[in-house]
Amino acid sequence: MPTSRKDKKDNVQGEGDYRSAREFNRKERSFVRSHDTNELGEAAAPDNPDHAAELERAEKEAKARARPDPETDEEGTERDRDVGAKDPPPRKR
Q1: 69 — pLDDT class (breaks 50, 70, 90)
Q2: For residues 56 and 80, what is the distance between their CA atoms, to the nearest angstrom?
Q3: Which of 72, 70, 71, 66 is closest to 84 using CA atoms?
Q4: What pLDDT is stored for residue 91 in this prediction?
């Protein structure tokens, strides 16, 4: 028996899957309330200077490709001058 369009929509997995998003948010809030996130962050710190340098290099490389964040990037910084930094975000269809 063919599935209807509604059946397919109810089983959407991805950005339109509101049930999964609510479940994720609920579990994330529970985790944050029940764990010392500062301690976990410190435990995740690099073990040696080489690892720290590699993480810093990777972060800098990723930020160079990212669109500037108006809340955290200061005007006039290298990321602010990136090509496309002043372009408006693409329109949703």
Answers
A1: confident
A2: 19
A3: 66
A4: 67
